[in-house]
Amino acid sequence: MTRMLGRPEGSAKTAEEARHWRNSRRSMVVVYLYHVPAWRGGRMKRRRILVMAAAVLWAWPAQGAAGVTRADVVIYGGSPGGLAAAEAVCREGLTVIVVEPGAHIGGMITGGIAITDTGTPHLVGGIARQFFSEVEQETVRTLGKPGPAILKFHGKELPWRTPRPWDLEPKTARMVFERWVRNRGYELIRNQKVVRVNKRAAEIRSIRLTNGIEIAGKVFIDASYEGDLMARAGVSYTWGRESTDQYGERLAGMRAPHFRRRYLPEEYRTPTIEYMHHGQFGADIPARGADGKLLWGVEERPTQPIGSADKRVQAYCFRLIATQRSDLKLPWPKPARYEPQRYELLLRYIQAHPGICFARLVHLGPIPNGKFDLNASGPFSIDYIGGNREYPDGDYATRERIYRDHEDYEKGFLWFLANDSRVPQDLRDDANSWGLARDEFTDSGNWPTQLYVREARRMIGEYVMTEHDILTNKTKQDSVGMGSFVLDSHWVQRFENDQGFVRVEGHLDESINLAQSPYEISYRSLIPKRQQCRNLLVPVCLSATHVAICTIRMEPVYMILGHSAGGAAAMAIRSGKPVQDVDLRALLRKLREQGQVLQKADARR
User: First CA to last CA across the chain, in angstroms?
Assistant: First the structure.
């Protein structure tokens, strides 16, 4: 069931009853004090009794209407990793409560990532594999097996690749996740954020939500994209990029700017999108306008050296579901705040590449039912480069402002391409041949509610996964899952170089083939330092460097780690031990029995 309001312990069943009970008890204290003989025994005695009474009143909950709700395991974040953790806990016969800060569960899988970044699919096992298998079965049941995707380009229909088995419609993924929740019957609290974590020594006792509900548990799992429970629990964390010196990572820190004259103009005219050209400008575009000021979205040249640390994070966006089907297509919406000057650099980019098509300005990946996953591609796309600087460690109001700004930027980008008279007519026609799919995100104007937070806080835990664990030190005695996707960092900043031209930086070396050489993920990267917290697991904002998280951060991996975290939580509760002391042999044996792939030898194709 979906829980919208906490029920207090004791006899009070409504907010009014609880308020009446609390006020009545306080009145009873005052009446009782008046009749205590010591009350009339002098000023000092009265003062002492008042102090005692104040302590009693303070101990009564300020939010009596909310009370305390209890479960064995409390999971913060209804992301795919969080839901996998909940499923794992339920399989162990323990009680669980999932708190989702937003209205919808499923995170980015139900929020727009329809092209599943699997790396090597047969390395995905356990609950994650079960989920994708159920989605595939549901797709085939309702639509049949998908055929090749068709792209319409200037009156021609061009066949493209067939959606893969794990490429999905978000609405189908949401249906499967919602069915999981119903079938298990655990409590799901939506639209509530954590505002306080109550600890005793190094153990979390309870968390307080924005509506006043307090939830107590034995073990807590932070499966949110932002790590808010972890941060409020006093666990060490970071965000941004480490320097090359900190962990000896070759790819760490600020990167050298990208610029390649790789794409000839005629290549831009083709609609094929099999190669996603990540951000090469391909032309020297001036960074300043006629007034001498930097164009919107372009920063001054950074003064920091290559390889140095900073607090910048890779760009965010909304992953959209687009279509060219006339019966499904909706026009691109105009944003609430449209500022065409934001797209002056985009216009110059278009002018520098005559004949460029819509499918070169965004990335379009085919999914079932004639729809496409629309992602960023290139140096000026739907990624809002630099717009997220305050997001990782920001308060909720700051994040809401950034969320709205990203929505306005991305809607404005698409509106500009489809409507601005300065955009060549062929490109406008091409952009207008696409639109939002009317059967996705139907309760939010066909726009996803989940911002793609590719990277935010990262715990500094018992073990930090680094570039070395991804590229060389690949095996782990305590492996709780595997990863195999490329080192995928989107652009971090766009700036003016010494010659006055625009450059971007932040990408990593995607040519490294991790699909053929996957890596194992340490259990210790999911747990905080012992002295900081003994009953918390963090499978999403786990302990990893920027370089390492760029490959770990894929949703199937988060589900794998969520499954393992749920199993570890159950084992910690049953043994009465901290999460740092669970019996690893028993845990790994249990995970393998449940189909988890912890080493390549465990994989089934």
Answer: 36
| CA separation for the pair 283, 260 (Å, rounded) | 8
Confirm if 530 and 462 have CB atoms less than 8 A apart.
Answer: yes
Structural Rg of the chain based on CA atoms: 27
Asked whether the beta carbons of 385 and 491 are under 8 A apart, the reply is yes
What integer pLDDT is reported at residue 512 of this predicted model?
A: 83
Instruction: Write the DSSP symbol of residue 310.
Output: B
100-120: per-residue pLDDT in tens? Answer: 999 999 999 999 999 999 889
**Residue 145 is which amino acid?**
K
Residue 209 β-bridge partners: 194
- Two tokens, residue 470: 């991804």
List, in order, residues 6 or more apart from 581 with CB less than 8 Å away: 572, 575
CA distance 361 to 345: 13
**Both tokens of residue 577?**
């031990």
DSSP 292: S
Looking at residue 259, what is its pLDDT?
Answer: 53
Question: Do the beta carbons of residue 288 and residue 294 sit within 8 Å?
Answer: yes
CB 573 within 8 A of CB 502: no
SS3 assignment, position 374 = strand
Neighbouring CB atoms inside 10 A of 44's CB total 8
Closest CA to 544 of 535, 554, 534: 554
In eight-state DSSP terms, residue 162 is: P
Burial class (CB in 10 A: 0-12, 13-18, 19+), 107: buried
Q: Burial code of 236-258, b = ≥16 C-beta within 10 A, e = fewer?
A: ebbbbbbbbeebebebbbbbebb
What is the C-alpha to C-alpha distance for residues 514 and 511, in angstroms, rounded to an integer? Answer: 9
**Cβ contacts of residue 191 below 8 Å, gap of 6+?**
100, 101, 102, 103
Instruction: Give the chain's residues under pLDDT 50.
Output: 1-41, 43-45, 49-66, 260-279
Instruction: For residue 339, give the nearest of 405, 383, 386 by alpha carbon.
Output: 405
Q: For residue 279, which phi and psi values (nearest 5 degrees)?
A: 80, 10
User: 249 near 242, Cβ under 8 Å?
Assistant: yes
CA–CA separation, 66 vs 209, rounded Å? 10
Query: From CA 68, how far away is CA 543, in angstroms rounded?
Result: 31
Q: How far is CA 507 from the centre of its chain?
A: 19
Host H or E run for residue 151: strand 150-153
Question: How far, in Å, CA of 327 to CA of 365, rounded?
Answer: 20
User: Phi and psi (nearest 5°) for 126?
Assistant: 60, -140
Greatest distance between any 2 Cα atoms in the chain: 98
∠ CA 258-261-267, nearest 5°, is 120
CA distance 349 to 432: 19
For tokens 């799919």, what's the residue?
Answer: 437
Encoded tokens for 388: 């997220």
**Helix pair 170-184, 80-91: axis angle to 10 deg:** 30
Half-sphere exposure of 432 (CA within 13 A, CB side): 12
For every residue of 523-564, DSSP letters joined together read GGGGS--TTT-SSEE-SSS-SB-HHHHHHHTSHHHHHHHHHH
Helix (DSSP H) and strand (DSSP E) numbers for the chain: 17, 21
Residue whose pair of structure tokens reads 């460690």 in the numeric block: 393
